[in-house]
Predict the structure of Cytochrome P450 hydroxylase.
Amino acid sequence: MFDRQFHLEPFVRFEELRRHRPVFYVEALDAWLLLRHDHVKQVLQDPRTFSSDDPRWHTEEFETAPTMITSDDPTHRRLRALAQPAFTPRRIAKLATAVEELCESILDEVEARGDRFDLVEAFSGPFPAIVIAELLGVPREDYPRFRRIAAQAVLATRPEPERSVGMRAGQELNAYYGAFLRERRESGELGDDLTSDFIRAQRDGAECSDGELEAMGSLFLIAGHETTTNLINNAVRCLDDAPKLRAKVVADPDCARDLVTEVLRYRGPVLGNFRFTTRTVEIGETVLPAGSRVLPMLMAANHDPNEYEAPGEFQLERRAKGHLGFGRGIHRCLGEPLAKLEAEIAIPALYRRFPELRVDTERDILPVEVPVIHGCRELHVRV
Ligand code: HEM
């Protein structure tokens, strides 16, 4: 099921499956894939029945502290509350000028590369990675290191032996951020970054262990860029298939918001995330016993013809209501305002700089091959 062709165009396979087997067991993952919009919503809106605290994430060999994305309330609520203030739309809007400047300075470097390059290496990778580094306060020149480790950490969602490689990388990322956190705390130099916020909150009596802060920093280093990198990559792939829209984006950067919304629906970078059933539960006609693993596929839900008309068409003016690209319910993406800000700046800026940008058909697109992400490891373009 999860071969390279699937990862390049997941919705093609989802389409066939949704019609015949919308609740579909995948042995390699020991998980039930859910492909209908109503089933996916059922799961995301019922965190008591569909827990995020999968025992697979804390085996004895790879014990780590919980994070908000791998825990249920009340732990989830407590951890999310620590970071929430930094991600309000108002706080994020203040970053706009700095993010625009960073974007333009990276594009200056990209321009010097000539007329063919790997977009991931040159632009879509470094840009969100540096933004999240600055937000956390970690040195921006460390980004190639944490990008490499983060790319390995997501392998934890694959079957063995990659799972162990991913879990080990997750521990390496915790150790990297943990060392930075301790150094920062000992130096006493606190600023207006998220790490300083964590240290101050802990000092002021917030209930959180060092292990939890380490794991939180590490979660941001993964969730904070791998996703936005692929939102940019996926937007480029969508526009490559729609020359008229490409011209419109070049002519009218104000359409960026609608563009980003439709990319999130049509080619969203998060395919889905696992849940674990706490009781026997029915999904459609399938009865799942307690202790089953499910993988609600957001992208499949976003292509469900019961929810969207002509879901296979990329329509700029669709402004899809209720798309699940950022999830739903208590775990809905915390970074949504930041992700939107970055993408709405980066995509028009990229096409302003390179109006003729096209995917390089002489090179293969290398997809990220993990069951929770839709994106590219390499996306070569011509300008
Ligand atoms: C286009 C970019 C992004 C997409 C499509 C995306 C998507 C998602 C989705 C679908 C979830 C829900 C996972 C679940 O239900 O288990 C999620 C959660 C999360 N995202 Fe994002 N994300 C993006 C960018 C970001 C960024 C930039 C950050 C941080 C700076 C971030 C931080 C988080 C965090 C912390 C959670 C966990 C929230 C919780 O469990 O309460 N994300 N994201």
